[in-house]
Amino acid sequence: MDSFTPYAPLDVPKPFGEAIWIVDGPEIRMDYAFGSIPFPTRMTVVRLADGGLWLHSPVAPDEALFAAIDRLGPVAWLVAPNSIHYWHVADWQRRYPHAKTAAVPGLAEKAKRPFRIDAVLEDAPPWPRAEIDMVLFPGTAVSEAAFFHSASRTVILADLIENFELRRVRNPLYRWLIRLSGAAAPHGKAPIDLRLTFWPTRRRVRAAVASILAWPCERIVMAHGLPHASGGAAELRRAFAWAR
C-alpha cells in the first residue's frame, strides 16, 4: 500500500488553468540518509503558443499517459527543474527523441542516471520568456529553477514549496516528520533540511525570491502536495518569508 492517498486519477492530464495541466503520477521512494522516504509525484504540462508542449518534472512512463499527452500536442521540451527531479527524463527522451531537454546547472555531473541535456537553466530560459519566465534558485546541495506561466498566471515549482495534506499521509511517522519539517498544508513551504542548504547562497536566494514575488501570480503548482488554485501571490509571500 502507498504511504500517501493519491490525487486520483493518476497518469491523467487535469486542467489547472489556461493551457496548463497537472499529471499526478505514482509514488516513489527517494534515498535519504540511511534509508529512503516516499513521495507522491506530479508533472506539469504547458502548451506553448506554437502548440508544442513543455513538460516539467516528468513522472514515471506510462503508455496511457503517453497517449494522453500526444492528444494535447507534440512534446517540445522536457524540463529537469532541480537537482533531484530528473530520474524519468531519460524515459521520456526515448519516447520523444526530438524534444529538447533543459536542466539546472551542474545536473549533468550530479545525475545518477544519465540523460541528454540540450540547454542549461541559468540566466534566461531557452524558450520565449514572455510565455514561461524563470528564476534560478542557486543552492549547494540542490538548485532549482522556478517558472512562471504567464497565460495562466501560475508559478511552477518542484520542492521550493511542499504542501502535504496530513490527512493523506497514512504513516504516523511521516505525518510527524512532515509537520516538523514545515511542509504541512495549508501552510507548506520548503522543508527545513532543504532551506538550510540555501544558507551559504542566501544573498543570491534573496534576489531570486524578490524576482519570484514580482510575478503576478494567481496559482501555484508544486511537485508534492496540494496546489494553490487561487491566492498564489499571498501564498508565495508566506512560503518564502524564510528567505527574505
Task: Lay out the secondary structure.
Layout: E1 14-17, E2 20-32, E3 35-47, E4 53-56, H1 63-72, E5 75-80, H2 89-95, E6 100-103, H3 107-110, E7 119-120, E8 132-137, E9 144-149, E10 154-156, H4 172-181, H5 192-197, H6 202-214, E11 219-221, H7 232-239
Parallel strand pairs: 4-5, 5-6, 6-7, 10-11
Antiparallel strand pairs: 1-2, 2-3, 3-4, 8-9, 9-10
Outline the structure in words.
- The chain has one domain: Metallo-beta-lactamase, Chain A (4-Layer Sandwich), CATH 3.60.15.10.
- The mean pLDDT is 95.
- 24% of the residues lie in helices and 26% in strands.
- The chain starts with 13 loop residues before the first strand and ends in a 5-residue tail after the last helix.
- The chain is globular and about 45 Å long.
- It is of the alpha/beta class and 244 residues long.
